[in-house]
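User: Quick one: structure for sequence A, then sequence B.

Assistant: Sequence A:
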Amino acid sequence: MAQANWRLEGEWLKNCTCAYGCPCDFNAKPTQGYCKGFIGMRITKGHFDSTTLDGLCFFAVVSFPGPLHEGNGQLQPIIEERATAEQREALFNIMSGKNSAEGTLFQICSLIVTKMHDPIFAPITFQFDKSARTARLVIPGVLETEVEPIKNPVTGAPHRVQIVCPEGFENLEGEVASSNIRSTGAIKFETQGGHSTLAHVVQTPEGVAA
């Protein structure tokens, strides 16, 4: 069970190399057999015990050689450089999974990641519009991504798809979009037209809250 009182509410973004819809969300094999991407959020309101985390961004770039449940993953955490030492420690405590119940996002990540790269502290520019299905993330020298609506291949008109997962450990409902990613940190890759999920989330030690 949880060892600390924490809560993260905010704008969640997951982009990866899989096709639209991300088979990993359906317990299926990644589109290309492997999965590379990132997850993270801007915390609109959050805390770890008495440490306030409002307004901070954090992301994690990941790489898995096969289906996520088979493990052997790599992860590099990225935290906004303006975070204080206390806030950085708070976020590391949350991301470690040690302060989360079994079967929750951060606890699962702690089991399937076997190589942890050194964390990066950098300026983060993050633009996010869930309803428009657009986002932009720039972390200079580390990670850049752009998100736009999926386009109808015939008419070019925006195409809308939502994924609802009532028992999800990442989010409960997300907008699906198209992403371009260029990752130049410890986990290097580049992709065009991959999957993106935009969601509003509330993460707690017991999992995603409604």
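Sequence B:
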Amino acid sequence: MRFEMMLPHQIRAAIAAGTPVVLPLGVLEYHGEHMAVGMDTLAVTRALDLIEREAEIVILPPFYYGSASYAVEGPEGTGSVHVDSGALHPFARELFTGLLRVGFRNIHVFIHHQSENFATGMPTDLAFKFGARQAIFSFLERTRGEGWWGSSDMADYYAQQAGGEDPFNWIKIHPLMTPETTAQYPFDHAGEGETSLMMAMCPEAVDMQSFSDARWYARSAARATPETGARGRDLILRHMRRVLGLAEPEGA
């Protein structure tokens, strides 16, 4: 279900059912001459298109305007759009506050951009992680009052945590590719891995006739194939199903 197309009774049903609510998070960034600038976000949205066919999920409108940085190329004539993380953080906080007030408690964010060292964090995911934490703390104080954690009602907090009832799990942010995935699939920028993934999931985002090997990071794209991309796609879908609590389809 696309959130922007949902009617209020459908939203209330999704809240009652604890349906996963997913935000595709990404950037607009130069990915060589052969690939669309939305690649990092498209990898998430196209994977969610496939998950949506299998299970009930709520997909929020994608956010493309993360901190791309100009580490790869400057923006002039390349299409990279960089929004400083200092601007992203208050937006994320307000967005998550709004979703919590709607009633959602099973919110997930997937990001691919700069996620190879996800445990350490990069500007976009860190801004959204911080915004999520602030939104949860503020919401809890608003709804439960100051001292909510220290009250006798929370005496079993650690037991709740073990049982999955921890309110700090209301919002979770995930890399599109886990370390387990990248151990089996090439993680790169505009190279074989990302180009193959787009060939399999969004072929209209790739034009190999425009390919140039002038940049080192794109050279391996010459080896890209849809078959390689399909392998990466399946690894991504398996990861998504697991963190969203969805069953693997038969034969997957």
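The chain has a mean pLDDT of 95. The domain at 3-148+162-179 is CATH 3.40.50.10310 (Rossmann fold).

User: Thanks, that's what I needed.
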